[in-house]
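Hi C.,

You asked whether I'd gotten around to modeling the 389-residue construct. I have! Everything is below, sequence then structure, no commentary in between.
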Amino acid sequence: MSILTARAVATAFEEKFGDAPAFVIRAPGRVNLIGEHTDYNHGYVLPMAIDRATFMAVRPRTDTVLHAYAANLDRSTEMDLSNPSRNPSESWLDYLAGVAHELHVLDKPVLGADVLIMGDVPLGCGLSSSASIEMAALAMFEELGGFKLNGDDGALLGQRVENDFLGLSSGIMDQYIIRCAQANHALLLDCRSLECTQIPLTLKGCTFVIANTCIQRALTDSKYNERVGECATAVEALNQKFNRQATHLRDFTQDELMACREDMDLTAFRRARHVVSEDTRTLAAAEALKAGDAVKLGQLMNSSDSSLVHDYEVSCDGLMAMNDSARGLEGCYGARMTGAGFGGCTVNLVKTTAVDNFVNELMNKYTDTTGIKGECIITDAALGAGLVQ
């Protein structure tokens, strides 16, 4: 459960700025149940918001200055919102600057404020702390400026911050689920059309357990953008084979991919095989979730993880140790890495009656295997970003 409350954040603001905030914004992190590295290939994803969040306590100003304090880092800085730009010494501010920049492009009012930022989404571990900050910032500027973007437009704005302002070739999933999540639901999202289906989490006697390897991954850019490029190489080969002008792997079937096997670089083929098969698994997982079929969902999660390890090659020793240990424990239906990879977290589907024992044994086995102390997060599916009432 969440370890941070809006009241605690408001109290911290008052201690820092000498007065109570006018309002508090909350934006959750997220965990992706299945559908990894498919979003930037225009495929399908199945995430849910978690009850760890980024909070922003806010007091309006009469100028265009954003005076921001990052409580987790104990760092303060200012920015002129009339000309937002990246800050090389305070990179955490870049997410707010990027949102302000994109709002200027849309000709929306971007008003100054004193803001205290505090969160309990673990950083750098695949639970989307960055998109949480972006969507909290957007909700803050909406409240200050008296306007409201619709869900799709708000999520797309966050994606542009990542792609254009920060230079990371990410997809739409993180911002969309954080912006649009409903409590007690997962969300099946078509990352091309942005058609989404809210799926009630009605798996009887089951709990999702997030396990943090405590191995921070630097997503940067290199490995992530490298995978994006390898997918583009696969699309180019498929287009040449079938005389098409498709833009993404979403446009091809498993049979077409296999027919192109000898005409494609081996690495590009393996990346494409993961993406195409992952879309199929994600749609099947959504059906299993609707049907309350924990066994089937767990099998699909395990298969997804295997594909990420062997075809997409975004796992690491810590993630594999965590998942191997989890699958050997009583009550575990399935386990997979979640997020971009190279460290971070796994997500596990576990019998609720077995959760306590599962957590204890998993953490012990993981430490014995790796020498690293991990942590577990037991979470409900939370509500998306917005004003705390």
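If it helps when you're writing up: Residues 266-291 form the longest helix (26 residues).

Thanks,
B.
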